[in-house]
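A.,

Following up on our hallway conversation. Structure tokens first:
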């Protein structure tokens, strides 16, 4: 089985998700076919880092700044290149050349890891088994962006969900749902620092199971009568989070 991983050039996860890739290469490396890095470094992103610093989100801002500064080290790329696996760069997985690459190389599964790319029908249909996403909230209830941050703020369990992708956002069937927050947890960066390894372990186990059966697991319906939708917090929400003791 051939699995293609897709991530962002810059994330706000400590070490830019390095632990996840180390775990996957160690535990399911025989099934990995390469890495795609979607370019998102831009003046706007640098402005976001400055803005977060101004709002007191020094943990998130410094993590992003460190990840940007370490891009020339190519730590993620070197992990794959050392195993002679290709590393590709793109602006979107919906580009024609990326769709063609997936088809031409017989990719069975594409896994999206912390990108904001909305996959459209042609890339969704390109791999033989489809596309998966790691959603950073507990589906089917928690939808949108930064679900884990809002969950911690509201003293609710936080975690991630691995789900099949379709043309509706966060709507495909649920394959893995994992709670990883600790009771009363308020340090968002410390929480994120644990997530990469846990996601890597869960994804490696899922990939091995799919490779053994040649198909996706049955999964569960991604249906909820009263879902909660979240989006990037406003300045007022960030101030309220910090007043409530959240460490951002």
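Then the amino acids I'd put at each of the 248 positions:
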């Amino acid at each position: 089985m051939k699995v293609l991983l897709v991530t962002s050039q810059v994330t706000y996860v400590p070490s830019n998700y390095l632990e996840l890739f180390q775990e996957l290469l160690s535990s399911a490396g025989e099934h990995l076919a390469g890495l795609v890095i979607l370019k998102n470094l831009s003046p706007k992103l640098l402005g976001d880092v400055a803005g977060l610093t101004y709002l007191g989100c020094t943990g998130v801002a410094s993590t992003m700044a460190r990840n940007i500064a370490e891009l020339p080290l190519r730590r993620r790329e070197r992990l794959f290149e050392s195993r002679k696996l290709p590393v590709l760069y793109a602006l979107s997985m919906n580009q024609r050349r990326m769709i063609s690459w997936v088809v031409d190389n017989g990719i069975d599964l594409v896994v999206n890891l912390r990108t904001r790319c909305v996959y459209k029908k042609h890339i969704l249909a390109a791999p033989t088994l489809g596309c998966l996403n790691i959603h950073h909230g507990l589906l089917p209830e928690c939808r949108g962006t930064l679900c884990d941050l809002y969950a911690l703020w509201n003293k609710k369990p936080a975690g991630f969900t691995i789900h099949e992708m379709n043309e509706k956002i966060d709507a495909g069937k649920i394959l893995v749902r994992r709670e990883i927050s600790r009771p009363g947890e308020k340090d968002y960066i410390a929480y994120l620092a644990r997530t990469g390894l846990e996601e890597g372990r869960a994804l490696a186990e899922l990939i091995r199971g799919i490779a053994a059966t040649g198909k996706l697991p049955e999964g569960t319906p991604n249906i909820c009568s009263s879902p909660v939708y979240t989006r990037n917090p406003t300045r007022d929400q960030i101030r309220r989070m910090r007043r409530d003791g959240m460490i951002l």
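Residues 195 and 234 are 24 Å apart (CA to CA). Curious whether your intuition agrees with the design.

B.
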